[in-house]
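Deviations from the work plan: none for this task. Representative record:
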Amino acid sequence: MGGRVAGPEIERLIQLLARLPGLGPRSARRAALHLIRKREELLAPLADTLRVACDKIVTCRACGNADTCDPCTLCRDERRDRDTLVVVETVADLWALERAGVLSARYHVLGGTLSPLDGMGPSDLNLASLVERVAADRVKEVILAINATVDGQTTAHYIVGLLADSKVKITRLAHGIPVGGELDYLDEGTLAAAIKSRTVF
Amino acid sequence: MGGRVAGPEIERLIQLLARLPGLGPRSARRAALHLIRKREELLAPLADTLRVACDKIVTCRACGNADTCDPCTLCRDERRDRDTLVVVETVADLWALERAGVLSARYHVLGGTLSPLDGMGPSDLNLASLVERVAADRVKEVILAINATVDGQTTAHYIVGLLADSKVKITRLAHGIPVGGELDYLDEGTLAAAIKSRTVF
C-alpha cells in the first residue's frame, strides 16, 4: 500500500504491526483492517492496554521477571517455596514453566545465554545477582531450566562453576522423549539420552 | 499463563493481541513479550499509533474507504480519473488493487456482498449511494472488481440490474491463469475461462 491510498497514520500502524513476531506485511495489513473495523471492541481497548503496559510494566529487580509491580507477583507470593530457585533464560521460559503448573518455586531470569559470537559475556546476564540471591536467601536447590542448546549448556556449566563454593544442590531438567512424541521423528541425541535415563516401568 | 504469573495488565494485553487475525494464544504471548522488551522502539509508538488511529480514522462518506480524512485521500486526489468507478467489496480489496498500481480511478466500497444466508440484503451494502454517484458524477465506466465467489457474482449481477437505466458501461475483471500460476494446480473453471478468453500471441 503506497502513501497515496490512505493517510500516513494507517501506513504507520501497518508498519508497526508488521514488526510483531508472527506478523508479516500482508498479515499486518489484515490486522490493521481488522482493528479499524472493530474500533470499539478491539482497537480502543488495545490502545489503552498498550499505553498501560508501556507505563506500568517494569523488570523485577529480584528475579528479572516482567510485571507491573517490583518485586513481581511471583517474588511477593509467600506461598511459593523459598528453598528452590529456578534459573531460566527469558521471561518466555518462565511463563512456559508456569503453564506446566508443576513448580511453586521462585525464578531467576538470566536475560539470555553466554554467547561469544553474539558478544554476550557473563556481565551481560543476571549472574552476579544470582550468586548473591543463593547466598542471601539460603537457597537449597537451584534448578537450571535452561534450553538444551549449545549456548544454553555452556551457560549452565558456567553457573555450576559460579555456585561451586555455595554448596547449593544444582539440578537440571531431564532429557527424554517429549510426551506424545514419536520415536521415529526424534533425533539420535534425544533417543540416546532417553535410553540412558530409562526408568523402571 | 495464569493470573498468578504476572499482573492482570499483561494477561489482558495477551488476550487482546490473540484476537488479531494471524495471532493465536501462543504467538500473542510471544508478541506481548516482544513488545515489553522493545518498549521504546515498538510498544510506546504502537500505543500512540493505535490511539491516533482510534481517534482519527473515519469512513469516507463518498466511497466507503477507511482514512483519517473525509472525503478520503483517494477521493480528494484530483489527478485520478473521474470517469471510472471501481466497485470493491472491502477496503482490503481496494488496497490490493492499489498495490497492483494499474488503476488511477476512484473506488466505491460496498462493505460486503449480498448473502441471504448471512442476512446481508441490498440495504446492508452501499448500493443506493453507488447509483447516486454514477448519476451525479457522470461516470462513464463502472469496473466490478468483486470477488469471483458465488456471493460476489450474485452481487455483481444485482448491481448490473441497478445500473441498467443509467446506460453506464459496466465491466468486470478478466478470468484466467494467475501470473506465475501452473496449469496443473488450477481448477477446471479457471482453465475453461482462460481457454475461452485466449488472446493472440
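Chain B is about 45% helix and 10% strand.
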